Amino acid sequence: MLYGIIDIGSATIRLAVYLIEGGRVEQLLKQKEMVGLASYVQDGVMSEEGIAQAVRVLKKFKEFLYSFDISHIEAFTTAALRNAKNSKAAVGAIERETGLPIRVISGDEEAVYDFIGATHAISAEDGLLIDIGGGSTEIVAYRSKQICQKVSLPIGSLGFAAKYVRGVLPSARETLAMRAEAEATIGAAAAFAGIREAEITGIGGTFKSGCALYNELACRPAVNRRIDTHRLPEVIGTFQRDHGLTQEMTIMLMKAVPDRIRNVIPGLVIADVLARRFQSRIITYSDSGVREGYIYSEIVGK
């Protein structure tokens, strides 16, 4: 049976079409729109413009799915709408305008879905899984493929960009301010105080775009999915606006992260703080995450 899964995130709204038969899940197609819903949150409130942007994209995705007679549609939303003071009213307005029921998943649920989705694609029994989204960061520590600690933190790449960065790229001072907040927020996650992991499995847009930018800067092949964490400060420092961008660096950015030029460095600041906090030497990007976890939990497992 064909299913359309819509993930309404803080930076992007994504549609993926899956063929689900028994326990077999095959992704057939995916589309995304860079909406940046987190940037429409003003004083904690999702604006009417942000709601309108979500409605526009969801109507477009719904029309696409209906053109193929795909009527099994599941839509869920994460930090941008979850954390807004007017979350219930905003989600209700989007549902009325689109005719799509939308599930608001909690931070804990998002961390669990991340874990379930990613562990279907990796073989490690023990490890640390991190998803740096636009509006939140989920961290899951697991042993013998079972969650032992999980947390959702209210920091994300797009949130940091909107809060701290005046231009397209951050200055050195703005980077320090983002780093300070990330260190304070991550340091307050007491359950993770004693955890050390040599390798992080990273999922989501920050790690995907960060890996692409790292590959360009380090002259690694495009298929490489591993980041040496000791080089993260070099990546962050290279693309600060104080230093002045050469044409070569501009080309790197536009080739590697055309959709995420504004929020890739804020996301990598969070990644660097996490890597230092957990003494991690390597970050490996995984393409499976919250959508796949949602499918295995809420569709296959039902």
Q: What features would you highlight for this structure?
A:
302 residues; alpha/beta; 6-stranded mixed β-sheet; 5-stranded mixed β-sheet; 13 strands; 25% strand; globular
Quick recap:
The protein has 302 residues and is of the alpha/beta class.
Give a description of the structure.
The protein has 302 residues and is an alpha/beta fold. Helix content is 43%, strand content 25%. The chain has 11 helices and 13 strands. The strands form 3 sheets. A 6-stranded mixed β-sheet has the order 10-9-8-11-13-12, sandwiched between helices. The relative contact order is 0.15. The model has no long low-confidence stretch (mean pLDDT 94).
Helix content: 40-55%
Ranges where pLDDT stays below 50 over 5 or more residues in a row are none
Mean pLDDT, to the nearest integer, reads: 94
Largest sheet: 6 strands, mixed
Number of distinct helices: 11
Q: How far from one another are the termini? A: 15 Å
Secondary-structure element series: EEEEEHEHHEHEEEHHEHEHHHEH
- DSSP strand content: 15-25%
> Strands of the biggest beta sheet: in what spatial order?
10-9-8-11-13-12
- As a whole number of angstroms, the C-alpha radius of gyration is 19 Å
Structural class: alpha/beta
How are the SSEs ordered, and which strands pair?
Layout: E1 2-8, E2 12-21, E3 24-34, E4 41-42, E5 45-46, H1 48-67, E6 73-77, H2 79-82, H3 87-98, E7 102-104, H4 107-119, E8 127-132, E9 137-143, E10 146-153, H5 157-164, H6 172-187, E11 199-203, H7 205-218, E12 226-228, H8 232-238, H9 247-256, H10 264-277, E13 282-286, H11 290-300
Parallel strand pairs: 1-6, 6-7, 8-11, 11-13
Antiparallel strand pairs: 1-2, 2-3, 4-5, 8-9, 9-10, 12-13
Helix pairs in contact: 1-3, 4-11, 5-10, 6-10, 7-10, 8-10
